[in-house]
Amino acid sequence: MKRALVTGGSGGIGAAICRRLAADGCYVYVHAHRNLAKAAALVAEISRMGGVAEVIAFDVTDGEDCRIALEALVAESPIQILINNAGVHDDAVFPAMGADQWHSVLAVSLDGFFHVTQPLTMPMIRSRWGRIINITSIAGLTGNRGQTNYAAAKGGLHAATKSLSLELASRGITVNAVAPGIIATGMSDGVFDAQTIATLVPMKRAGTPVEVADLVGFLASEQASYITGQIICVNGGMI
């Protein structure tokens, strides 16, 4: 049974990914920092459906906190599927953006990617098999007004994805990014109304977390063993 870690596992997309990986037979670690109750409820749901999961708690922005939690996690066996899904947004037009808004968004997506991925890489290399999947955003490809910080963070993840894929390709480890567009989650509720979605999205609807999770499930599988270094969009034709 492969062990999978999903950061930000209690959110809309993260929870759908946890459910999919558990259904595919993985032992899933549902990461949370503040939403521990939601993560515990998700673990209970997965258990009722016949899957195996548990909650793991740490702050992705705190390198030492991550190191302690993750070194204990891989002490006996590696994490072979890592989904870097944790992310936040704190929007403002750039002239009005505070330094705290800039740093907090990059800290979760970019620093979090390093803090979580780096301690897990050598154990994964030793196992000669792995999947690292970074959940990014269409904003990292096209930009978005009021989201210079968020776009910079996700664009940085795209570059990191490509570089790390080159380093790990010969070790049986693939590294890819999934870049959703407008997905119906709590993060997007109230941001895009139906008319805006119909204007922006050729398919005239928001995507669902399950549609993102289905792609992640495929990329995490044996069937995707020759796909690496890619940024794959799930956006209903927006780009």
What would you note in describing this structure?
The protein is of the alpha/beta class and 239 residues long. It has one domain: NAD(P)-binding Rossmann-like Domain (Rossmann fold), CATH 3.40.50. It is 45% helix and 16% strand. The chain is built from eight helices and seven strands. The protein has helices at 12-23, 36-48, 63-73, 99-127, 139-142, 148-168, 194-200, 209-219; strands at residues 3-6, 27-32, 52-57, 81-84, 130-135, 173-180, 231-234. It has a seven-stranded parallel beta sheet, sandwiched between helices. Helix 1 packs across helix 8 (209-219), helix 3 (63-73) packs parallel to helix 4 (99-127) and helix 4 (99-127) runs parallel beside helix 6.
Structural descriptors:
alpha/beta; seven-stranded parallel beta sheet; 45% helix; Rossmann fold; 239 residues
- Mind summarizing the main beta sheet? 7 strands, parallel
Question: What percent strand?
Answer: 15-25%
Please work out how many helical segments DSSP would assign: 8
Q: Give the total of domains.
A: 1
CATH fold-type name? Rossmann fold
Name the helicity range. 40-55%
Shape annotation: globular
What structural class is derived from the secondary structure elements? Answer: alpha/beta
- How many E strands? 7
Distance between the termini: 37 Å
pLDDT < 50 runs, ≥5 residues: none
Strand line-up across the major sheet: 3-2-1-4-5-6-7
Give Rg in angstroms: 17 Å
